[in-house]
C-alpha cells in the first residue's frame, strides 16, 4: 500500500514537493482505533515485516518470528503498521524515485534527518486515523526513529520497545557509516549519484559498504569459530583464492546489491550520522524525560556497533525505562537470530499493554 503525504520541508533546509510512503499492515484496527503498533525497520530493511517473499517483496518478512497470530506482537490483538522509511527504495520517496521533472532524484535528493522521517510517518498515522499507538517498536536504525517519536510526539505512543541502538550516533558509529558512504561514492559507476540510466550502477561500492557493515554486525568470536582460517572450497589464497570468510562477505554483498539502492543506502547512512535525539532539546536526558510511559530497552551483550552499556544507560534516562539483555555470540544481528530470547522479553513487556 502507498500513502501520498504531500510536500515536506526538511530540517536541513531542503524540500520535497511530494512524499510517498509505502507501508504494510497486519491485523485489524479496532473501533476505538487504539490498538495500533508502529514497527520501524533497520537501515536496509523494509515494510515487509511478516509474510513470504513474492511480487515486489524479494525476501520473506524480516521479523516474522515476532509478528503474527499469538506471537508477542500479536496480530490477533493489535493492528501492526510498518512503513518503508522516507529515503528508502522499497516504494517510499527516495533517490531512485521520480522527481517532478520525470527523472530520478539521484544527486538532487536532499539531505534527510531522523526527524524528517518521523514527521512523514506521523502524517501516515494521521491518514490512517491513528492518534495514538499502543507501542512504537524500533530495532537498530529503526530505534532512532522510535526515539524521535518519543521526543517529538510523546502523546502519540503509550509504550516504546527499543532494540539495539543509541540515543545519538557515537563517533565510532559515524566512522563506520562514513567508510560505507565513501565506498559507494568512490565506485566509478556512482556518477555522483546520477547512475540510474547506467545498467550496472555502483553495485561494487554498495557491496563493499555492506561488507564493512556486516562485519560490525557480527563478532570476532563468531567469525573465528565459524570460519577461522578455512579456505573457500579448494581455493588457495597464495594462488589468488579466498578464505571462507571472504566468500561469506562477498555473498552478503551480492545479496544486498540485488535488492537495495546505493543512493538510498547513502542517504540513510548520512541521516544516521546526524542522529541525536538531544539536539536542540537540552541534551539526551532532557529529550527522553518527556516520555514517561513504559519503555523497554533491549541491548545485545556482544553488540560492537550499538554497545549494550549505552543501551542500559539510555534505559535509565527514561522515567519508566527498564533494561533487558540478549545474550548471544552473534553480535548486533542477535536481535534477528535469538528469537527465543527476543520473544520472551517482548511477551513479558507486552503484558502491560493488554
From TrEMBL:
One of its GO terms (molecular function) is homoserine O-acetyltransferase activity. Pfam families: Abhydrolase_1 (PF00561). Its main location: cytoplasm. Pathway: Amino-acid biosynthesis; L-methionine biosynthesis via de novo pathway; O-acetyl-L-homoserine from L-homoserine: step 1/1. Substrate binds at residues 210, 333. It is found in: Cytoplasm. Residues 35-336 form the AB hydrolase-1 domain. Belongs to the AB hydrolase superfamily. MetX family. This is Homoserine O-acetyltransferase. It comes from Winkia neuii.
Amino acid at each position: 500500500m502507498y500513502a501520498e503525504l504531500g510536500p515536506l520541508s526538511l530540517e536541513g533546509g531542503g524540500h520535497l514537493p511530494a512524499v510517498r510512503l509505502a507501508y504494510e499492515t497486519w491485523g485489524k484496527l479496532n473501533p476505538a482505533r487504539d490498538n495500533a503498533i508502529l514497527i520501524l525497520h533497520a537501515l536496509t530493511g523494509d515494510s515487509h515485516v511478516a509474510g513470504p517473499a513474492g511480487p515486489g517483496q524479494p525476501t520473506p518478512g524480516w521479523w516474522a518470528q515476532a509478528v503474527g497470530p499469538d506471537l508477542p506482537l500479536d496480530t490477533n490483538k493489535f493492528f501492526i503498521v510498518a512503513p518503508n522509511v522516507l529515503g528508502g527504495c522499497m516504494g517510499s520517496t527516495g533517490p531512485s524515485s521520480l522527481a517532478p521533472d520525470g527523472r530520478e532524484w539521484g544527486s538532487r535528493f536532499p539531505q534527510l534527518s531522523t526527524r524528517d522521517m518521523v514527521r512523514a510517518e506521523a502524517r501516515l498515522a494521521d491518514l490512517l486515523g491513528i492518534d495514538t499507538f499502543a507501542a512504537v517498536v524500533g530495532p537498530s536504525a529503526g530505534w532512532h526513529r522510535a526515539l524521535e517519536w518519543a521526543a517529538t510526539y510523546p502523546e502519540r505512543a503509550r509504550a516504546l520497545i527499543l532494540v539495539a541502538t543509541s540515543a545519538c550516533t557515537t563517533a565510532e558509529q559515524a566512522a563506520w557509516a562514513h567508510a560505507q558512504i565513501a565506498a559507494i561514492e568512490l565506485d566509478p559507476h556512482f556518477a555522483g549519484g546520477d547512475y540510474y540510466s547506467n545498467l550496472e550502477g555502483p553495485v561494487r561500492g554498495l557491496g563493499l559498504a555492506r561488507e564493512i557493515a556486516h562485519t560490525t554486525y557480527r563478532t570476532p568470536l563468531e567469525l573465528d569459530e565459524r570460519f577461522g582460517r578455512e579456505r573457500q572450497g579448494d581455493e588457495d589464497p597464495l594462488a589468488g583464492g579466498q578464505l571462507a570468510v571472504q566468500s561469506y562477505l562477498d555473498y552478503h554483498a551480492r545479496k544486498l546489491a540485488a535488492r537495495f539502492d546505493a543512493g538510498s543506502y547513502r542517504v540513510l547512512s548520512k541521516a544516521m550520522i546526524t542522529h541525536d535525539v538531544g539536539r536542540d532539546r537540552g541534551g539526551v536526558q532532557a529529550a527522553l524525560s518527556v516520555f514517561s510511559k513504559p519503555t523497554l530497552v533491549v541491548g545485545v551483550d556482544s553488540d560492537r556497533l550499538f554497545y549494550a552499556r549505552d543501551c542500559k544507560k539510555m534505559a535509565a534516562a527514561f522515567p519508566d525505562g527498564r533494561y533487558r539483555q540478549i545474550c548471544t555470540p552473534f553480535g548486533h544481528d542477535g536481535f534477528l537470530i535469538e528469537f527465543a530470547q527476543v520473544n520472551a522479553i517482548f511477551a513479558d513487556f507486552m503484558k502491560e499493554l493488554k
